[in-house]
Design a protein that fits this description.
Blueprint (H helix, E strand, L loop, with lengths): L17 H4 L4 H25 L4 E9 L5 E9 L4 H10 L1 H12 L8 E6 L2 H14 L1
Parallel strand pairs: 2-3
Antiparallel strand pairs: 1-2
Helix pairs in contact: 2-4
Length: 135
């Protein structure tokens, strides 16, 4: 007589959670780090083109799983109008992507499209500090 076979789902495996599904792969992290370093150098050298007397730093880079799009978060200091500076950066996106392509051409097959966003996390920290001190 045949022994009863356990059902295939009798031993539950851990199910993937949303947090696990949104984690970046090692390749994504490496590409993001490479882009962050190279763009950081670019903005350090060319900050005067975008932020007159100010400073632009690359705080975070997020890359899509297909490595086709990179969201670049910029922190803009000592500039009266951050939106105008961001608009100038976005206007020169093709030039910035071309510069990046020259640096990463041996590491990446395709240079990702770049989208630039303002990183306002430091502003939020300041507001929280003010609320704590004032309240």
């Amino acid at each position: 007589m045949l022994a009863a076979m356990p059902r295939w789902d009798a031993h539950p495996l851990p199910r993937p959670t949303f947090a696990l599904m949104t984690q970046e792969s090692t390749r994504q992290r490496k590409v993001a780090s490479l882009i962050q370093q190279d763009l950081g150098t670019y903005f350090q050298r060319n900050a005067s083109l975008y932020a007159k007397g100010g400073m632009i730093t690359v705080t975070v880079v997020r890359v899509t799983p297909d490595l086709g799009l990179a969201k670049v978060f910029l922190s803009i200091f000592a500039v009266p109008d951050k939106e105008a500076t961001l608009k100038a950066v976005r206007g020169n996106t093709p030039e910035i992507r071309r510069y990046l392509g020259g640096l990463v051409r041996h590491q990446l097959r395709i240079v990702p499209d770049l989208t630039f966003h303002i990183d306002d996390s430091l502003d939020q920290i300041e507001r929280i500090d003010q609320l704590i001190k004032g309240g």
